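Blinded run. Sample ID left blank on purpose so nobody reads anything into the name before looking at the predicted structure. Input follows.
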Amino acid sequence: IVGNLGFMAEEIASQTGGDLFLIQTVETYPASYDETLDVASDEQAGNARPELAVGVENLGQYDTVFLGFPNWWGGLPMAVYTFLEENDLSGKTVIPFTSSGGGSFARAQSTLAELLPGATLLEGLHVEDSNVVESAAAIQAWLDGLALE
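Blinded prediction complete.
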């Protein structure tokens, strides 16, 4: 897993002992950041549900799910909608984390609350892209504040 979210996910997994799963679409996104934003914008405009390449095995064994995604225009990537529609997270604790070039995390958090009525949604962590590489201490402080068992 690479990039800002990959760094954050690996840090969270390292600090919690968790497993990693990459939400990956069948059609890969372009390598160029600007081209990826163009595709993402088109997906959002069309309310698309990109097909996922793989599913989560044994999701039932997990009580807590950290859900990481890029915060595009204050919202969720459409592949995350696909993931949430294909996986029942009822009864689980869901903890979002995200990075972005700017913008607010509030809309993504409220969208998740709507999409996950049967789950316990904890306050997520948003880190600006420019701060991700120095975010290990902030991630640790956030995790400590969650008081997970």
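Unblinding after everyone has recorded impressions. Residues 3-16 form the longest helix (14 residues).
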